[in-house]
TrEMBL record:
This is G6PDH family F420-dependent oxidoreductase. One of its GO terms (molecular function) is oxidoreductase activity, acting on paired donors, with incorporation or reduction of molecular oxygen. The keyword Nucleus does not apply. It comes from the Bacteria. SUPFAM superfamilies: Bacterial luciferase-like. Residues 8-290 form the Luciferase-like domain. The keyword Nucleus does not apply. Gene3D superfamilies: Luciferase-like domain. Keywords: Oxidoreductase. It comes from Agromyces ramosus.
Amino acid sequence: MEYGYKLSAEGFGPQELVRQAVLAEASGFDFVEISDHYHPWLDSQGHSPFAWTVLGAIAASTDAIGLATGVTCPTVRYHPAIVAQAAATLALVSDGRFTLGVGSGERLNEHVVGRGFPAVAERQAMLREALEIIRLLWQGGYRSYRGEYLDLEDARVFDLPDELPVIAVAAGGPDAAELAAELGDGLFGTEPKPELLDAYRGAGGDGPTYGEVGLAWAETEDAAVQAAFESSRWSLTGWKVMSELPNPANFEAASTVVRPEDVAAAMPCGPDAAKHLEAIREYERVGYDHVVLTNSGPDPDGFMDFFARELRPALGG
């Protein structure tokens, strides 16, 4: 079992994210994961640096902690050839510590290049083609590909690591979980749904499984709830909303119906370690072997200390 720390690229600038990653390594986390967005969810969050630059700086500033994208969409804003090259380079500069998390994306980040954002079925078909292109390029040599949605022309990734990065495919349903088993090396989920793990394993998937658990630590429950409400209320709107809205202003509007008490009911908030441990163990019980802690509390340093003192010893480590 490994435990990761989610770097909130929507809430902090690039230098601060690097600092937090260094602190996460010192606090006993096994890996850090970063979202790969163009926009934050809410204007009030105020940040959204380029994830790949931040990851490169983290690789240079740390020694052993794992790195992951959670997750990259390799179909619209990026062509998969660029992702294949970026991931291979990051694997090299991190000495093999990088995991490529991929998914079908959100309109919030992908529409910015003016190519629109397709419907769900088309997004999944594009993700399949993107994975095929990445795998093709990682075989080495010059490669071409003709798909229904994506093409590749006479391209080669020159710098490839001896051990290729793990590709963890995000899944919200059984079809995507089966795609993760077929073309990925692992599964990425955001809910403790046993049917996702069952679909992945049933389709032959035998790689690592990453699950994100939301929580909010602060010295008081009220402070944790308020911070989570201010920064993370958008997460209660549901995936069908989260994947389709184009700008932070839309998320501000969509989340006006969310109340602080709704946030408190959706995630453990406050200083009680037992509540946080139970949320983590729920993911462990359904079969996740990599659990990512997404802290919406107001004090990252305090949370790191809390993890080192109370959570990590109780979890075994």
